Amino acid sequence: MVKKKSEDKTENVKLKNLLKDLQKEHKGSVIQMGNEVEVKERIPTGTPLDEVIGGGIPCGLFSVIWGSKGCGKTSIAYSTIAEAQLLGKTCLFLDLEHSYDETRAKVFGVNTEELVVAEFAKAEMTMDTIIKLCKEKAVELIVIDSIQSMSPTGEQETKKGKELSVEHDTQALLARKLGQFFRMSAHYVSTSKCAVLLIGQSRMSIGGYITVEMLSGGNALMHWSSLIVKLRRGKAVDAPMRTYKQHFIDEDTGKERFKTVKEPCGFNLVAKLDKTKVASKVEGTELQLPFYFSGGFVNLEGEENADSGTTDVDGK
Prior knowledge:
CATH superfamily of the domain at 38-155 and 171-231 and 267-276: P-loop containing nucleotide triphosphate hydrolases
Helix content: 25-40%
Radius of gyration: 25 Å
Oligomer: single chain
Low-confidence stretches: 303-311
Mean pLDDT: 87
CATH class of the domain at 38-155 and 171-231 and 267-276: Alpha Beta
């Protein structure tokens, strides 16, 4: 049976009226028919990585940057915080690895006097703090350094409060807590338009014939993250080099002489877009750029002393 146009219009009016009532009851939770969906704001990282991820870290969503040690994860976080502060945003750095370095943060332009730094002993404290701050819309960028550093209460003590030894097996406990955290916080992160950047440590898979580098934290972490970027160090031959003159005494003549010396002043950083649910390059796209030990993404050595290397974007 085909509905008449008058019946369609009546049902359409009923739906619109219901949506209006729901919008009043649950403000911000219902997008009415015909309304344009707001484009999510981005916070730039201040690096060439923005070209790959679509302009920066998306607000109101979870993003992950992960990789092995010393590949620039925290450096990108510092740079993102600096860019957010330039936009007038309030930033929170959750230093769960207890490795926050004020001097290093300043290298990347962070206003350390305006940055809120917090440390928590238990994962639940960290998660509850994020939910509360997003409910109150108190911050606009939260960096968690790092995911794997969060230690749930069940890992430290029994339900009766008795302290546990490290001999107790608490496998997958953090993964389960993360699943609960994402379910409880996602709505408030979205409505507060807070960008949540999680830094992840890489782990090597156990078992099988091939050892694979992977991001631990459970399926919930992979599911709820709208943007996942993997970092790694590239080939040593592609690292930026510093050239300088070194003097020495010629043993035969006794005269002072000089020789040209080239040594690495950084490494070749490779960033791969593992997952994206936002406007960006396609998954699998890789970016290569020089990372300098002294200045991060800025060549403080000067063009005459350091080879800046090449920047290459490869879409797969």
